[in-house]
Amino acid sequence: MALEVKNISFRYRNGPWILKNVSFCVDEGERVALVGPSGYGKSTLSKIIAGYLQPTAGEILWQGKPLPETGYCPVQLVYQHPEKAINPRWKMADSLHEGWTPEQSMLDAMGIKPEWLGRWPNELSGGELQRFCVVRALSPETRLLIADEMSTMLDVITQAQIWHLVLKVVEERKMGLIAITHNQPLAEKIASRIIDLPALNRLDSIT
Ligand SMILES: Nc1ncnc2c1ncn2[C@@H]1O[C@H](COP(=O)(O)OP(=O)(O)OP(=O)(O)O)[C@@H](O)[C@H]1O
């Protein structure tokens, strides 16, 4: 079992419980889609799995152990909002090369133009920025990619281009994938299993 989400419960400060006793596993190289209504906690759960948020209770295990606190994290998250994931004070080349140096062929496949590398993040569109975020997350050390509404704000041609590359890399490297999407046809196309978050969330067990 590559990823174990074990009895995860979460609330923001003293707010309402968002997740209660959520458990599921993702096998090595498995592709799953995580679905649920808007505001149901999918992004929150993805941040917990990637180690950006600490759960209020429960644990995330990767290959049977907690995620490493230092060094490269084998679980990488691509957010819905690329502008929040990129350092505004770094030029794009620096953000891109922060974790690894992708080959030119990957930049070409993602449609990243050479002139974008010398720009600041605010000089690119959301879709252009998102391409950088996707490539940055696809280091050879990444073993599980969480794509949280990764392509929602893109036009259909760009969406297809990005998903084509991501699925090719995931397949070649036998990586795991958790795709969070409201797009049912996309979920069915990219994933072999659909995880319905409301069915796992034990909010009724709150005392
Ligand atoms: N930083 C925060 N502080 C307090 N509440 C938050 C915070 N971030 C999210 N929430 C709340 O937590 C709940 C779950 O939000 P989350 O973004 O995880 O849902 P989601 O299922 O990903 O939604 P969507 O499909 O609309 O993206 C929402 O009610 C949201 O308002």
From TrEMBL:
Residues 3-207 form the ABC transporter domain. Belongs to the ABC transporter superfamily. InterPro entries: AAA+_ATPase (IPR003593), ABC_transp_ATP-bind (IPR050319), ABC_transporter-like_ATP-bd (IPR003439), ABC_transporter-like_CS (IPR017871), P-loop_NTPase (IPR027417). It comes from Sporomusa sphaeroides DSM 2875. Keywords: ATP-binding, Hydrolase, Nucleotide-binding, Transport. This is Nickel import ATP-binding protein NikE. The keyword Nucleotide-binding applies. Gene3D superfamilies: P-loop containing nucleotide triphosphate hydrolases. One of its GO terms (molecular function) is hydrolase activity. It comes from the Bacteria. Its EC number is 3.6.3.24. Coiled coil: none annotated.
